[in-house]
Structures are given as C-alpha cells and as structure tokens.
Amino acid sequence: MSLNKVMLIGNVGKDPNVRYLDQNTQSPAGNAKVATFPLATSERYRDRNGELRENTEWHNIVAWRGNADVCERFVKKGTQLYIEGHLRTRNWTDQTGQQRYTTEVIADSLQLLGKRPDGEPQDAQPYQPAQPVQQQYQPQQPIPQAAKDDDLPF
C-alpha cells in the first residue's frame, strides 16, 4: 500500500503561466490547458534564544484543465490558496546535456482563501467550488398520547 498526498495552504509567488500541453508527454501544442505557478508556505517558530524565526518553502504547482481555468481567471500573485494534490518528479536533459530533475505538486483540487483583492468590485463573484447539498434528517416526533386524549373545550 502507498499514499502520495499533499495538502498546502500558501500564497502564490507570481501570476500563473497558462498554456496548452499534452498531459502525457508534456509537449507543446497539446489540447490540455495547464497552469503552473510557485506557492510559498511559511512556518514560524521560536529558536533557542526565544527569537521569532520564519522558514519559507517554495512549491512548484501544476494545475490541469478545469483547475487551470480557475487559476487563469481568479489566481494572481499574492492569492492565498488551499491545494490538495500529489507529488510528481520529472527529469529531462537540458541544452548542455545535464540531467535535470524537478518535483511538482499536481493539484487535484484547489480553493481560494482570504479576502477579495483591492479594486475588485463587490458584486463580482469569486470562484466557489460546488458544495454537495446535505439535507438534514429530522425524524417526525410522535404525538404524545396525552395530547391525543386531551379534551379540548372547542
């Protein structure tokens, strides 16, 4: 059994780069929309001397098809996102013949967080993922026997 799952909350480092690629071969001129962008996650802690420290980690995010549409329309530098996905490591040979590697987070789902950016109209509706409607079950209360036998004067 194995598990490859990533959950991140962070800020977008620069506007997404949106293009069309073949999802299997990563070659240009494909028919699948893809958005790529860096996401920063930070952790704050106190060191041994009691000083507040911050460590920022940068993640390469790749969003395909519908998620790429959302990125193209609503995501820009500074946007706070929640991303669920999985890791993928790719390798290639660069122009100098060196073998290169990169590890990316493939976004299976993403959700915009935080407040609306300045300058965006109040009536503009941000992307809201569809939420399943959950109906609450409320059992009918039986009528108590005393209420049935109650002699009402009218």
Report the sheet with the most strands, covering strand number, pairing sense and barrel closure.
5 strands, mixed, barrel
* Distance N to C terminus: 71 Å
| Discrete helix count | 2
Q: By helix and strand content, what is the structural category?
A: mainly beta
Number of distinct beta strands: 6
Sheet-strand content, in percent, reads 35-45%
Element-by-element helix/strand order: EEEEHEEH
Gyration radius over CA: 25 Å
Strand order within the widest beta sheet: 1-3-4-6-5
The average pLDDT is: 82
Task: Identify low-pLDDT runs.
Answer: 129-135
Q: What coarse outline follows from CA principal-axis ratios?
A: globular
Q: Percent range for helical residues?
A: under 10%
Explain the layout of strands and helices:
Blueprint: E1 6-12, E2 17-21, E3 32-46, E4 52-64, H1 65-74, E5 80-93, E6 99-113, H2 145-149
Parallel strand pairs: 4-6
Antiparallel strand pairs: 1-3, 1-5, 2-3, 3-4, 5-6
Relevant terms:
mainly beta; 2 helices; 154 residues; five-stranded mixed barrel
Write structural notes for this entry.
The chain has 154 residues and is mainly beta. It is built from two helices and six strands, in the order ββββαββα. The protein has a five-stranded mixed barrel. The radius of gyration is 25 Å and the shape is globular. The model is unreliable at 129-135 (pLDDT under 50).
